[in-house]
Amino acid sequence: MARRRVTMADLATAAGVSKPTVSRALNGHPDVGAETRERILRLAEEIGYVPSMSAQALRTGRFKMLGLLVPNIAWDWMPDVIRGVTEEADRRGYAILLQPMDASAKTEADFVERVLPVLPVDGLVLVIPPGLVERIAELHAGGLKVVAIDDRVERPQFPSVETTDRESVRRVTEHLIATGRRRIAFASSDDTRNLRLRRDGYRDALAAAGLPETVLMTSDLDHRALAAEVARRADEFDAVVTAFDDLAFTVLAALRDAGRRVPEDVAVTGFDDVPAARLTHPALTTVRAPFYELGAAAVHMLIQAVEGEAIPDRVVLPAEPVVRESSRPGDVHPLNGE
């Protein structure tokens, strides 16, 4: 038999007070004494009382629930984003409703038009599916509180948090130049805004050093063909800056299969610093993106907006290069190493 839900009336009876007193105690009203409040809170935990979300929303105008919309929870860095979101929300007394999305336009449209309007949330944190930007912007203009964690699309028409893609790749490319590399290629796929910024950072460093550039691109989600091209053309360059760690892993494997030594013949760098970056052979030089901090910052901004505070249009958190064996000849390590 299903257990009956514990009500506010049950809690009031257990505490020997009225329902209004319980309500005021749970909501922190100053007219309830500290001893009474503590006793009610203790009893609520003991008997398993959970406030009704709908009743709370009617009373306060808020659900104390935030939506988290993500296009792919299987990405290696997504758990850190989700952890940052949930831990900051919990610290502020909010719950998180996670909504994964697939890549289909129909699913995106159905979500915006049919699901999102009835979700019991006070606001939305999202890693932007590019096809949803305009629809989310329309909802934001209509009053929905939104903060984006992303830099893959052009500036959205709502607040966002992002990281230093261009600056960080410039720095890691400068590291390669400082270690004596002079023929440095850039490899990437998916020509999204964040990857263009990373390519620009690579170009900034080469232009400042007076060095030529070699850009290798693919639109194929399977990185093996691009990695094979890198290995086939490895005589043309002595380092490869890849736009993200997953591509760097594939490039490392292709170079190894082609008999090329890393970093002796070709240095390799990535971007993201997913956990596997420490486990490759050699360990991968990369850029550590602040995924946990991005999630926490987005929730902090969103709760400020929900609670009526002004928030900035854009917050930028730094990503830091991490030098490991895939680019480090001998003891040369001008950046933060591990």
From TrEMBL:
<keyword id="KW-0804">Transcription</keyword>
<dbReference type="GO" id="GO:0003700">
    <property type="term" value="F:DNA-binding transcription factor activity"/>
</dbReference>
<protein>
    <submittedName>
        <fullName>Substrate-binding domain-containing protein</fullName>
    </submittedName>
</protein>
<dbReference type="InterPro" id="IPR010982">
    <property type="entry name" value="Lambda_DNA-bd_dom_sf"/>
</dbReference>
<feature type="domain" description="HTH lacI-type">
    <location>
        <begin position="6"/>
        <end position="60"/>
    </location>
</feature>
<dbReference type="InterPro" id="IPR028082">
    <property type="entry name" value="Peripla_BP_I"/>
</dbReference>
<dbReference type="Pfam" id="PF13377">
    <property type="entry name" value="Peripla_BP_3"/>
</dbReference>
<dbReference type="InterPro" id="IPR046335">
    <property type="entry name" value="LacI/GalR-like_sensor"/>
</dbReference>
<dbReference type="InterPro" id="IPR000843">
    <property type="entry name" value="HTH_LacI"/>
</dbReference>
<dbReference type="GO" id="GO:0000976">
    <property type="term" value="F:transcription cis-regulatory region binding"/>
</dbReference>
<keyword id="KW-0805">Transcription regulation</keyword>
<dbReference type="Pfam" id="PF00356">
    <property type="entry name" value="LacI"/>
</dbReference>
<keyword id="KW-0238">DNA-binding</keyword>
